[in-house]
Design goal:
Order of helices and strands: EEHEEHHHHHHHHHHH
Oligomer: single chain
Strand order of the largest sheet: 1-2
Shape: globular
Number of strands: 4
Radius of gyration: 28 Å
Distance between the termini: 50 Å
Largest sheet: 2 strands, antiparallel
Number of helices: 12
Length: 306
């Protein structure tokens, strides 16, 4: 054992410090095994389809080509992207504002109360209530022969389609998309409202601040990143929606997902499969940019409200 001389004639033992053993322990191995199903799911349903789309977008009959990506500059493709972005932005903004108001009402309600539990549970269900089922529900309610449409026309003399059948066009899609955007906003924005501490408002009032000053100088700047991030999430949710639009819009391809469907399944215009993959790649790029901004805003929100 090594020693050190602190005083002549006195030898003191020096304890030996063992270096920690490196390598995975059994507990770490078990933890990694528990994540394998998740990573397998991500690879099968996210990584592989993305690679197929990315490779197919640059594939042609003779091998590598940029013709598919260049075709994204065609007028009808640009129009489809423009309508998709407009539809997603409008429904995200409306859903964010109305959902934030509803989330604030829940945040000020009794914690764990019946109202909050019921509305939160309903929002979780309605946020996932989309696709073909939601489209048919709106058709049965306010379609041309829907019971609300018939009631308004026969009993009150109000024809909601006097200016055209808007339900099966972009205005109808905006209404249906907003239906599931609002409850989604409640789910993603409510935790940020719960993170606002009552002491901050009390401190503002004790310093002579008004309610307007509290919201514009304290709560507003703190909630702004969370609100913007939630709005971006709603935008990505609407931009990637397909089944609802496919069931509701029977003619024409006003948005990108329907253009991709036509390119992949059309029996009139053949050889457009790779163009559909190029449009899908464009959607992936847009969603990736939006979700990157969302992650940055969420990181900023967690710094203040975590």
């Amino acid at each position: 054992m090594a020693t050190v001389t602190d005083d002549p004639g006195l030898l003191a033992p020096v304890p030996q410090v063992r270096a920690p053993r490196r390598g995975l322990r059994l507990h770490d191995v078990r933890s990694l095994l528990g994540t394998l199903p998740f990573f397998a799911y991500v690879v099968v349903f996210l990584v592989i389809p993305t690679l197929v789309v990315a490779i197919g977008a640059f594939a042609g009959d003779g091998g590598f080509t940029t013709a598919n990506v260049t075709a994204l500059g065609d007028s009808y493709v640009l129009d489809a992207f423009g309508r998709s972005i407009l539809l997603s932005a409008v429904t995200a903004l409306i859903g964010a504002v109305l959902g934030a108001v509803l989330a604030y009402a829940l945040a000020t309600a009794k914690p764990g109360g019946l109202l909050r539990r019921v509305v939160t549970a309903a929002s979780g269900v309605l946020a996932q209530f989309g696709g073909v089922t939601l489209a048919f529900a709106f058709i049965a309610t306010i379609g041309l022969s829907g019971f609300v449409t018939v009631f308004l026309r026969d009993r009150l003399g109000v024809d909601i389609y006097s200016g055209g059948v808007w339900l099966f066009e972009l205005p109808g899609l905006a209404l249906v998309y907003t239906y599931f955007q609002i409850p989604l906003m409640v789910i993603v924005f409510l935790p940020a409202l719960d993170g606002i501490r009552p002491q901050w408002r009390e401190a503002t009032e004790s310093l002579g601040g008004s309610t307007w000053q509290y919201w514009t100088r304290v709560a507003g700047p703190l909630l702004a990143p969370a609100f913007l991030g939630s709005t971006l999430l709603l935008f990505a949710n609407a931009f990637s929606a397909y089944a609802t639009a496919a069931a509701l819009v029977s003619q024409g391809n006003p948005i990108v997902p329907l253009q991709i469907r036509t390119a992949l399944t059309s029996e009139v215009v053949l050889g457009q499969q790779n163009l559909g993959k190029a449009m899908a790649l464009g959607m992936v790029v847009v969603v990736a940019v939006v979700m990157t901004l969302y992650a940055l805003l969420q990181k900023r929100t967690a710094r203040w409200l975590g």
